[in-house]
Amino acid sequence: LNIGAVARAMSNFGFLELRLVQPYDKAWQEARSAVGAAKVLAATQVYDTVQEAVADCSLVVGTASLGHRDLRLTVRRLEYGGRILKRHLASESAALLFGSEKFGLSNDDLSLCHWLLRIPTREEHESMNLGQAVAVCLYELVRNPKAPHAEQKRGTGLATAGELEIMERLMDELLLVSEFTHERKATSSRLKLRRFLRRMALSGQDVHVWYGMLRQFLWKMKGPNSSGSGAE
Amino acid sequence: LNIGAVARAMSNFGFLELRLVQPYDKAWQEARSAVGAAKVLAATQVYDTVQEAVADCSLVVGTASLGHRDLRLTVRRLEYGGRILKRHLASESAALLFGSEKFGLSNDDLSLCHWLLRIPTREEHESMNLGQAVAVCLYELVRNPKAPHAEQKRGTGLATAGELEIMERLMDELLLVSEFTHERKATSSRLKLRRFLRRMALSGQDVHVWYGMLRQFLWKMKGPNSSGSGAE
Questions:
Q1: Which of B61, B68, B121 to mutate to test the interface with A (most CBs of A within 10 A)?
Q2: 3-class SS shares of chain B: helix, strand, coil, % to 5
Q3: How many angstroms separate the CA atoms of A101 and B104, rounded?
Q4: For a disulfide at B12, which of A24, A121, A198, B29, Cβ 3.0-4.6 Å?
Q5: CB within 8 A of A184, min separation 6: which ones?
Q6: What ipTM was predicted for this assembly?
Q7: pLDDT per residue over B2-17, tens digit each?
């Protein structure tokens, strides 16, 4: 189950080369059916030892837990270590080494690592699910703070001043007809209304929906037989 | 299974308030035994509708997939949206809303959202495992680029120049005794040796391990009966 979850996270984030060291046969057979990770799993290589699996990598980064704190290896938080790993990956190969969920990395495995990454989990509950730990590490590697902030803006952008002006006049009339106010608004009240409408940050599309509704209210208030503008 | 994985990721990153809307009874019963997430699961509230679940939240952020691109909701990449959410959470409550893994959020659910977050997965394989998606989003919320870069430096720091000088003299003697060289090193060769030793970036602890080994080599080469310094 974990192998499938790991392969899926890799596929999600575009890391397509999974290497397994002595997987349990059963887990490995079951993983091959993991949702959406077929490409990663078809290309997965199985090795007998960690040494062989990382032989062609010029950087080997292990994953740390509290238990590793007495080791003589540098432990870097993911935020920073991820940056170093990313820079290395731009021109060279690297291995990100995870142990089994139960036992983690052995001392033998750790002796092959240049340094360790630690995901900033709470000390009270540090041990992560393997598939989730892989997903978080790979996300940090694809993370791009310079990417466009919003992928899709709401609607077609904000209403123009002209569009808001029409809405303002409709509201003004409505407030009068509904007897919410009893005379045309004084300038200060007009300003209040204007600011009120701006605070809503209406889109150009939404403001037209408002026109329809407000005109309908006006028509209803003035009575069907009046000379109002009617529903549109 | 997913509920347990979600609760575990929440516990890892310190988000302790899980709210479920109409969970499958069976999944919910099984989740209660999830590894290490007992505290989160014990406090989990179950609701009939999403409306009730988010009623006290002043910001509701949904999670987006490609299928949502035609909605009139702002879709923000996690790197940026996470920052907005984090800022909001500093003083107010917010809900991060996930749909079921199979169906995602319904249009009804989405109508309750202020905007949507998208995890920057590959377009070719966008759909994430639910537990992994939650882990990645929560990691972004606890992520702290200003945290100390390395939590633990290797050993006790680099060897001092004095410590390296001792190693240099030992190496020099060894190269002579082993007949690797046949006379005391000329200055340029000493410089080469010095640079060679610096490139290894030896720690203060490791350099003492080297002393022991090098002295032992010397002792062996000079013969047990010579007047060498002997093993330490």
A1: B121
A2: 50, 10, 40
A3: 28
A4: A121
A5: A172, A176
A6: 0.72
A7: 889 999 999 999 999 9
